[in-house]
Structure formats: C-alpha cells, structure tokens
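hiii, so i know i said id send this last week but things got crazy w the move. better late than never?? heres the sequnce for the chain we talked about at the cafe, plus the structure i predicted for it. fair warning i was half asleep when i ran it
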Amino acid sequence: MNNDIIEKQLQQLGESLRNRESITDQMLKNLGEQPQKNQRDKQHAERGSTGFKSRWFAFAASLAVVACCLGVMLFSLFSRPQVSWGQMTRAVQEQEWIRGTAEGKNGKRTVWVSTKNNKWAINFSSTKIFCNQTKKIKYEYIDWEKTITKLPVDDHTIEKVLPVTALSQDKKAIEPWLFGTEKVISQKRKVVSEKGKKWIEFELLMWRGSMRNAVLRVDPKTKLPVRLTFSSNGSSETSVWEFDYPLRGPSDIYAMGVPRDTKIVDLIPDKRTQLLLKELKQNRNRIEDFRMVVRRSPERLAMVVFKKGRKWRVDYCSWNSTTLIPELSNDGWYDGKLPGVHSAPLYVSDGTEVWQNTNFRVGQKTNWKKSEYVGPRNLLNGEDLGNMTLAPYTKLISALYPKIEPRKGWKLSVDYKPKGHKGKVLIKTSVELAGGKSFGHNWYYLNPAKGHAVDRIELFTTTDGNAEDKNSIIDWQVITMDDFFQSKKGVWLCRKATFPHYPIDKATATYHFDFPNKLDDKLFKLPSDKAEKK
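okay and structure toks below
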C-alpha cells in the first residue's frame, strides 16, 4: 500500500482514538436545536458510531432543556427578596411530575422528570429513554434497532436533570454549568402582560450553540415555568417547550410504547466489576489539594498546576537558554524568584467558570477571556487520558484513574489474569468505528498493589472486532506511568509518564507533587468581565 495512504489512515485513526473518549462537548454544542431528521438518523445508524453520537446529542439536549429551564428559573427568582429559596425548592419538589413538550419537524418531543419518584424519561423521534434513579438503572430504545439497552447510572444523574439538592443548600445561586459544559452566561428579568395575566420572563443567553437565545416564562403565583423558547439571531426558526405538571408519568419504558417482548441488551457490569470502577472514581475524588509541576524534557518549559477543592489553576513557565534548567522540587522558581525564568497564568477556574490567558509568552501582557473549550471539571474528570488544550500532560489524574463506564455502543470486559502482565487487572473497552470497517480499543492495566491505579494504557485500532489478532492492528499507542508514590491521603500518584506524541515521537513528562497545608485563595481569583471586554 502507498505510504501516503497509510499515513493518512493512521492520522485519521489516531484522531478518532484521541477524540472518542470525550463526547460531552459534542452532546450539548447545539442546545435546544431540533433533533436530526428520521432519514438522517437512519443513515447515521448505518455508519455505526457516528449515529450513536448524534442520537446522544439529541438526548442530552433534551435533558439540558429541563435542567436549564428549572435550574435557571429557580436561581433567577431567588434574587427577589420576597421569594425564598425554600419556597422555590418546594414549588418544584411538591410536583408529582414535570412534563416538557415541544412540537417540531420530526414530531412531538416529551421529557418527564419526577423528583418525588426519582425517575425521568425522554420520548422523541425514534428514541425512548427511561431512568429509575432509585435502582440506578437506565433503559434506552431506538426504533430501528428493536432492542432495549440496559445501563447503569450514578448517584448524581438526577441532579444533572433537576438540581434540587443544590437549591436546598441556601446558596446565592446554583452552579450555572449544565452537564459540565453548557451554561447560562447572562440573563435579564422582566414582567409581561398577556390577555390580562402577568408573567415573569427571563431573557437568557446560552454559552454555545446556534440557538443560544432563550426566553423562560414563569407563573409568579405558582413559581413554576410554563414555557421556554429558543431562537437564533440569524434565523427565524424557534424551538418552543411547554410545561405542565401531571399527577402521573411513565412507570417504565414499556409505558412509553415499547413492546414488552423487546430484547434487552444488559450492559450492567457484574458486582466485582462495579466495585472496580467505583474504586477508580473514589480514588480520583480522594486526591487532596496539591501543587504539581509538569515538565517535558528536554524542552525549557513547564506547567504548574494548583488544586484546591474544586478550584484549580495552570501556570505556564519557561526559561532562557542561559539559565540552568531548574529542579522541579526547587520551591518558588516558577514565580520569578529564579533569574531568567518567565511565568504567566494560563488557566484559572473557581469550579464554575474557566478563564484563559491568551497572552502567556515572554513580554506579553495578560489577556483574559472565558474559555470556549475547557470546562471547570476538565482537569480532574477522568476523561481525555492526559491531555488538555495548551497544557499537555497536566491531566495526569485522568490517566491514573480514568473515567471508565458502560455505555451504549461500547463493549466492556475485565480480565483478572491478563497474559504477560502478572499481578495486573485489565479492563478492556471497544467500539465499532466507520460503520463496522474498523474497531477502536482502549485497554487499561490496573495495578492492585498501587491502589488499582492505571500504570499502562493501550490505544489501538483493528480492522475487525478481534483485538487478539495482532495482524489486524493498524494503529497502536501506549501510555505508561512509572515511579509511583502515595500522597498524604494514601492515593497512589506517579512521578513520570510517557504519552504517545502521534505521529512523530513519544513524550516523557516528569512530575513533582507538593501537598501544601494551605493554598492562597488569591491564586484562584477569576478576572472580572471587564477583562474580557478589553
């Protein structure tokens, strides 16, 4: 085969491998838009994973509509002194069911949420989803697949749909992020009259998507939303959601019209696997506050990461050719105490927003803007396997304790005695790519002696579904972690990691950790909105 063709294929496959773990941003980028047409959905289904992503976008967008209208409505109204947090929370929690409906080119879309019953459901186009949050089980049905997929859900999924717990904590405002990536960036309140009745309306501007403009109408007497309208500045098209509050909602996915004899594909892991995946998540969440210096040799630059609770910051550092390369453990070299060293903030987050400095090179004045691509949870959410825009290799925690979970379209299995890796545990995940013409595989080797931290990740693509057939492998990338130690809380971390730097070479990053007793809150102070306007 021609070398140019091979190189092109490898680049495409490598890009797929790097991108396929992070679907969230794609899910919500067009919040509130109409779902794909039925014919287009069928075409996507024939292409495999592409269809999978498009269907998940529509599902997530529908959930975000509910979260947006209810969550934003509640924290917006709290600014009025005559309306308390308790009143608003009770107004929502006292409803048996909240139902949102929208009519569009593809027919009727419906979303149900019940905080009393701890259930939610979605019915749109050819897709039906039902979630029993108490049992931590979700069911998904696609018309043309003629199967029900049974999936696990975590404890916090209902909070993403309707954040009533946050509301009950008497905060000044609930967290404005929806599903980790979407948020309301501005709002205006006004009172309108229509047919002799007064309504409260909020004009909202969403962070991204073509239909970013939204108007939420609230009944001032019941303090409940009645309508949410999305629109675009460049189009006359609108998407209108109407809300009502019925006493009954769907009890299961069959109540939504799915035949009872439909085959169920059960993706719920066995208890041993569930405990293993839970331990990864718990260790990721247990990591205490830290300062972490990251350097790729032999380059004369480094990143310094600060974490305090949900707040974090990344600084960019470099030094001139006449300056001796500083030791990572040399306290304070990155803040200008060592001659010839230049440092500048790159990212700063308070846990709800992320700001990025676009001028971080030597001699440039800082220029802050709200980040368009990095969310407040990106640094420690376990996704992306170690990479983040402009700050490579800072997401070490995502490599050591990755987010692995059963998902539709993916296969997941565990090998407790992998060949050639004595004493390790191997978690295998795979997904069909390019309509069945290739398959992507992520293999994670966990070390039980190191608290089940991952010390090796193999990313590869095969021409068929048999990952054991070495002749079918057309791309291979490996991430390794070495020189482990335990933090103050006993969580295993490492001082060195080697990442694939496709397609040229490999990158070895070295790490130095400190665990200060106290980190100054000034480190995580966000720039003002005025900084963005300059």
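btw Residues 1-61, 68-86, 163-181 have pLDDT under 50 and may be disordered. thought thatd interest u
miss u guys!!
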